[in-house]
Model the fold of this input.
Amino acid sequence: MSVPTAVLPALPHWETTPDDLRAAVREVKAALRARIAASGRTVEEVFAVIEERVAAQVADIAAEAERGEPVWPVIDYADVAAGTVSPELLAKLQRRGCAVIRGHFPREQALEWDAAIVDYVERNRFFETYRGPGDDFFGTVGSKPEIYPIYWSPAQMQARQSERMARVQAFLNGRWRHESDGVTWFEPDRDCLYPDRIRRRPPGADSAGLGTHLDPGTLDLWMTRANQAAFRHLFDGTVEQYDPWDAAHRTAGPQYPGSTMTSVFRTFQGWTALSDMDHDQGVLHTVPIPEAMAYLMLRPLLADVPEDDMCGVTVGKVFPANEQWHPLLMNAVTGIPDVRAGDSVWWHCDMVHGVAPVTDQKGWGNVMYIPAAPWCPRNADYAVQVREALRSGASPSDFPAEHYERTWDGRFGVDDLSAVGRRGLGL
Ligand SMILES: [Fe+2]
Done:
């Protein structure tokens, strides 16, 4: 039996980054524990509910891998476009929280885009003028991804504003509950056009990969009023009702700033392959369990974590997931299958992910990052800045202020926007 939420102790909250992080962590942890205790269960009991749910998925994934079945759902773009994705595959997408969309774009189209990006950066002497990585956001996870801070090539914009992209984004947004309590949290059929970078990793490359982490926020996940509402079921005695696909309270609240921090709400993160990539060539891995987020949120409240520590989460650094605090999750880390140029890869915005290391990579490893970021108050705010950056060729404000493209020749312009592109920018 649960206690009515109204009688539970209120939580302290910080709508901007607290001045004293350690003091704020101590305060919010004590308050979260008190709230859970007042709901009639101990923190350990609540955590055990989630641990059991996650452990069942971990076992399921291990069994699937053992049987040689693909853990990642693979969905044909043709089925997305025709609305004929099978109920079994939809259920698997819900369970795993990630998918490959096969043939999202024709392979030739993707290879053409890849070549066009090379032409665009070479023509504008990018390699001669490159000043090194503009951020150290991934400093804690020991990595150096081969990222081009390029946002406005015609190839990237053509993909972002294509009908094919809009269809897949609407399909993915539709996996979420976007309305509740009389509020439309986001519009599933309309995406905001979110400019992100590209990665091109050449044949023969050695890469240390990217440690497992997650992207939806840092300490703000526990500390802002909106996030406390979004994750309310974890703290108010109704943990069984926690639903990783519920967008309630996720699409308007503030986030604490970091040097590379997504200020938009994404239902799924994603990228589109611009080269063929084999599954063992340093590719993306996830912990394909959406409800693992509940595990990550509750874990710091257990007694073995120091009072002023959130399992290593702090502002301005990526949220780490690791063997030290989350060994159960690490058992389920699963890589994507082989992909071909034109396929796209998607994972739930809260999902633990990383990139495997590779030595002497076979073939190219090229991707364009394009997420599903449906229209909502938070994303509409960001669209104002995107419109400005598109006009001037600046780096978008979510990214380091490198601004390579301001003077570049052949940049995509406002006049080149399609109907989908204009809609995605609020024009
Ligand atoms: Fe990430």
Residues 136-145 have pLDDT under 50 and may be disordered. The chain has 15 helices and 16 strands. Residues 213, 215, 353 surround fe (ii) ion (CB under 6 Å).
